[in-house]
């Protein structure tokens, strides 16, 4: 009867509880998400350090990123490619002149999974023909490649973000300058309208006086003038010296006659 008492039940349950605890202790502890994220970050950093970036200073005309990856991917694994598209104004001018409508690129960056491969590719292919089949459109074009030592893809993204910020800042400054010029122009237009209204009021108040002044200004007085002597008449009179000589000669003769 003592075995069936409720006080004896816990004594039988304790060994089972101990076994469960020992089994839980044998199981490996679960790793936190923070530890996993740290490991992933470290792995990503190691992979990023192994990668190398090659700079292409001149992209062949109308060559797309897929074509670049296909041609250079034969020498090693490529992770990412970024090509800078040409200016939109140049593209519009070319299309307007009847040129090719395809998108063209000016320069670019290629990231290889292994920096050693990237360095070797830039060293071997630089200033060499692209080659391939003779009928290929890019057969005679030349590679312009350079390995960027110590350059990572993060530097490129920072550079692009910085250029975008500078471009946005310039655009905002240009918009603000245009707005100021427009406001100044409108202000001058308003001032000119006010001056015109003031002139109209003045002309309305002094309309009669202004009309009389205008009439007086239009009157022209004419005076009769003698016609100038001609050159023949002037020569017939002679010069002033000859006239004086004649006058003094006649006076001298009269004196002589009087003395006699």
UniProtKB/TrEMBL annotation:
PROSITE patterns, per database record? RRM
| Keywords per UniProt | Coiled coil, Nucleus, RNA-binding
CDD domains xrefs = RRM_ABT1_like
Q: Which GO terms describe its cellular component?
A: nucleolus
Residues of the region (Disordered) are 1-42, 195-243
**Chief localization:** nucleus
Q: Which SUPFAM superfamilies match?
A: RNA-binding domain, RBD
Q: Which residues form the RRM domain?
A: 52-134
Chain intervals with Basic and acidic residues compositional bias: 20-42
Compositional bias ranges of the Polar residues kind: 215-242
- Similarity section: Belongs to the ESF2/ABP1 family.
Give the protein name, as stated in the record. Answer: RRM domain-containing protein
The protein's organism comes out as Globisporangium ultimum (strain ATCC 200006 / CBS 805.95 / DAOM BR144) (Pythium ultimum)
User: Upper taxonomic classification of the species?
Assistant: Eukaryota, Sar, Stramenopiles, Oomycota, Peronosporomycetes
